[in-house]
Structure to design on (351 residues):
């Protein structure tokens, strides 16, 4: 149940998290997944990540460039576009406002940061 | 390159993705798998489903956003991939019409994902009864195939609801390269012998022989193609 709920939360925000992972510069699939896992979001499988990357690319929020690497078959590097940067700012603000409302509601229900009162 | 990625390459090509993009995607995914050290199926999920998600994410031919009924067709080599892809976009099959098109619709208010399976229709009502407890219901028959549908909520729960489905495709015919190849082979098998054994006055037996040879070659070629493609099907 807890896993299902977490998966649902992630589903609603994963695209923003991917955009956020590109604000410092271009990156590729495996490193993006590692970065997300490193921030405590758990392991994001390629089967979840790649459709999101494709959707972002189709929407013009990221651009992708394929480069052959010295070792291995090559990688697609993703970069945030100007439109992606704007979307991240707008949608990110909405998410933070939503997060704030959730926190307020949970706090009124007796839940404080760090556990129950 | 793994069999998984080979199959994915074929599915993406059949889905209309340009060859260079397919190769870049496959190379990228191969690198990803190499870095995780995992198994492709474990990492990306069942190949048909993953291909469907990648293709749905592309939705290049998206146009009308509010289409409710939509009729489309696909050949038997690509129908299951297309059903998976379009089911993931919220299209529910109502029936198969008399010329073999899938008659589908999507709930404009609360779209949800659908999943499909194809069975040989020889099972009749016993087949439907066997699948019913798992939530499958018949949604059409074409020649000797019978199609079943069920809401994806049956297998994935609330995640089956679609928040922002892609628009309806403008294309409604999805034929694979394999289909065109079979068609070309069949046509050639009929035309070539007809040319080689062109009838002339008083040459009726030669003409009939040509037709017979054409027919035999066509059947042999189609059988060979069928076996070849059947081996490739999961």
């Amino acid at each position: 149940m807890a896993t299902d709920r977490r998966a649902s939360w992630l589903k609603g925000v994963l695209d923003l998290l991917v955009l956020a992972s590109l604000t410092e510069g271009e990156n590729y699939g495996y490193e993006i997944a590692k970065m997300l896992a490193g921030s405590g979001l758990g392991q994001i499988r390629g089967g979840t990540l790649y459709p999101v990357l494709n959707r972002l690319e189709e929407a013009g929020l990221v651009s992708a460039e394929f480069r052959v690497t010295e070792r291995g078959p090559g990688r697609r590097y993703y970069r945030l576009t100007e439109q992606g940067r704007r979307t991240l700012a707008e949608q990110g603000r909405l998410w933070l406002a939503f997060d704030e409302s959730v926190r307020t509601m949970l706090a009124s229900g007796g839940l404080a940061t760090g556990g129950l009162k | 390159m793994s069999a998984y990625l080979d199959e994915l390459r074929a599915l993406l090509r059949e889905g209309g993705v340009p060859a260079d993009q397919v190769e870049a995607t496959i190379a990228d995914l191969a690198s990803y798998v190499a870095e995780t050290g995992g198994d492709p199926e474990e990492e990306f999920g069942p190949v048909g489903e993953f291909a469907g998600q990648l293709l749905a994410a592309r939705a290049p031919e998206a146009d009308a956003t509010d289409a409710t009924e939509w009729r489309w067709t696909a050949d038997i080599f690509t129908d299951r991939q297309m059903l998976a892809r379009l089911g993931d976009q919220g299209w529910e099959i109502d029936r198969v019409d008399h010329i073999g098109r899938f008659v589908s619709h999507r709930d404009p208010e609360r779209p949800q994902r659908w999943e499909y399976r194809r069975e040989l229709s020889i099972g009749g009502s016993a087949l439907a009864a066997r699948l019913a407890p798992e939530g499958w219901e018949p949604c059409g028959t074409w020649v000797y195939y019978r199609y079943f549908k069920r809401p994806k909520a049956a297998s994935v729960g609330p995640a089956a609801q679609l928040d922002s489905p892609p628009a309806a495709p403008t294309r409604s015919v999805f034929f694979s390269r394999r289909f065109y190849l079979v068609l070309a082979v069949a046509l050639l098998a009929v035309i070539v012998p007809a040319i080689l054994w062109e009838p002339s006055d008083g040459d009726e037996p030669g003409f009939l022989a040509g037709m017979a040879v054409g027919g035999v070659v066509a059947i042999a070629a189609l059988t060979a193609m069928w076996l070849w493609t059947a081996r490739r099907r999961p």
